[in-house]
Amino acid sequence: MNRLISIDKMRFEGVIIIVNELSSKRFASIIKAILMSKGGIMKLSKLFITAGFLAIGILWMIPIISRQAAADDIRSDICGDVNGDYSINVLDITFLIGYLYMGGPAPGNLAMCDVNNSGGINILDVTYLIDFIYDGGPEPTCPPTGISGYLADYSGCKEFVKTDGADTIPPTQDCIAYHYDGQGTLTLNHINAGFNCCPDSLNATFDLQNGLITIQQIEYGGVCDCNCLFDLTYVINLLPPGDYTIMVNEPYRHPEDPELIFEVDLNTADSGLYCVPRSYYPWWE
Ligand SMILES: [Ca+2]
Ligand SMILES: [Ca+2]
């Protein structure tokens, strides 16, 4: 009896700790997201009970987690093994909640945290893991390891010459405005990308090797006798925090114009703008 009271007290104190750690807005969004999911009320009660134990666990595990996070070689290719210790258990839920909502260290392999294979990491991955560990839910199913990038959007052909009220970036500049959310999503707005005036479509491929992100622009069709500038938006998901070099291979770059390549520090959320001058591009020949 005394033990039960003690455990209930631990659960309660754990929930209080978790609640205090989360801002009210974030907490409300978590609760709302869970309630709106299938079996939301049952899931919510499990999360609270789990959170109680986790809060106690966090206090005990913080030194261990910190040591693990300090190691450079933490990496796991087991889907759901968030903390990279080659097993899936309550500590992975702890790690994921800590990372998403409490400013905790980033998992070594973000792709292994997207357990519902949605392309992003959020509260639904937490509830998915809870279901799997405690309720016989489906096994984690992660996307293939590594970055996944895609061309999210692109404009039509823009004006050749800057006019009042048009771009703040002149046509003699080829720029990337980047934003990293600190949780794996890097958005790149490519301003003044040169292509033929009338491509059937545009696309891009993405590669990551030793910290070098290479984006290869691809144009399909494009038989008009003119070139012009476009704006493109690239999105790269599941990119772990770190230092990177970003290079965009542009088929219309003149050999005398510099390559579009730059270094970024994405160890935390960050935004910035990088430009290279263009003397010929994209109107040579
Ligand atoms: Ca683990
Ligand atoms: Ca997910």
Model description:
The protein is of the alpha+beta class and 285 residues long. It has a 5-stranded antiparallel sheet, with no helix packed on it. The chain starts with a helix and ends in an 8-residue tail after the last strand. Helix 2 packs across helix 3 and helix 4 packs antiparallel against helix 5. The chain contains 5 helices and 9 strands, in the order H-H-H-H-H-E-E-E-E-E-E-E-E-E. It has 2 domains: 134 residues, no CATH class; 130 residues. It is elongated and about 65 Å long. The N terminus is likely disordered. The longest helix has 31 residues. The protein binds calcium ion (2 copies). The site of one calcium ion has 7 residues, from helix 4.
Summed up, what is this model?
The chain has 285 residues and is of the alpha+beta class. It has helices spanning 2-21, 24-36, 40-70, 90-101, 123-135; strands at residues 148-154, 173-180, 186-196, 199-209, 212-221, 227-237, 242-249, 260-266, 270-277. Helix 1 (2-21) crosses helix 3, helix 2 (24-36) packs across helix 3 and helix 3 crosses helix 4.
